Fold this protein.
Amino acid sequence: MDIKALAEKYEPYIVERRRYYHSCPELSNEEKETSAQIRHDLEAMRIAVREVPGCYGLVADIRGGSQGATVALRADMDALPIKEDTGLPFASKNEGRMHACGHDNHVAMLLGAAQILNEVKAELHGTVRLLVQPAEEVATGALDMLKGGALDGVSAIYGAHVWGNFDAPLIDVTPGSRMACCDKFTIEVEGVAAHASAPHLGVDAITVSAAIINNLQQCVSRMNDPLNPLVLTIGFIEGGPRWNVISNRVRMEGTVRTFDEDLSKSEIMRRIIEDTAAAFGAKGTLEYKRLTPPLINGSDKLNAIAHEAVVKLYGEQAVGHMPTMMGSEDFPWLSDGGRIPYIFAFIGSRNQGKDITYTNHHEKYTVDEGILKRGAAVMAQFAADFLASA
């Protein structure tokens, strides 16, 4: 099978689909029309599609000419609440909503891979499962897909993301840690109210909170291996009824980013919060939740297959390396706690020669559309090669 040639053949289709989906973005958990149109696109290829219970996700299987394993290819489809300012002729028609993270490209590449694999399905040794996932931006969609049975029977998963500060047309399939977890926490500090002129009669939740904030940074600077990346950020704080009252309550929210698989940092934080508050006569509580696990390309087999797929199609010069980042993705949830191995690629979308330089989540973000056929081709090649090796 000549997947590179088929990607060239379907490039106009892939670009047209990208532009269509870019023009009509829908927010997380609101992807009703997007899901319906993707289903229509797949059914036009005579691929059977089924809905995932409890969300707008879709599952479609391309069955090969002989029996074998099942490999999944995933694309996410939700947009962001951003007002687009690209000036593109196919810019968002939905006011205040934009595909500023590039998920329109992911959908188009998956549809392109579907066209390619559907044309060569007689040569496939197993089944390719197409996963169309909602709600990645709010980190619930992958879990919804998993709960809905979308990964039942799957032996491996491939995902990819276009990236705005990574040069086109490079493709990154680097092994090891790629994206950090996203943990969210809420801290409540309870003090005693008093008049601002008599602070000794109260317990000031604001000054206690200031001490907690400072002490929590000890988690990073003194309680963490400096070779282990760790970010602890408090991004929201609210407290106090008015300017001349000692506040009796403060609420803070923040995030932890690390590559630790466990939640051990949360127990250190809990101790610091509770003990610091108690030292001043206040009460501190912590609510801690993991929104996404760390994304780690940990399968030697899948790393090798993905690397060889890029090289087979476009040569060693097409392989790039994007540095590990502390941003996050909900894709690792699809592995069902590590039961299903995965590989996640990054596809460069920056092209300074075409003045395409803005990165993801920017109101001017767009991509060099020449990368789309490559993304679809690598996706299809990986699937075919994995099934041949399984």
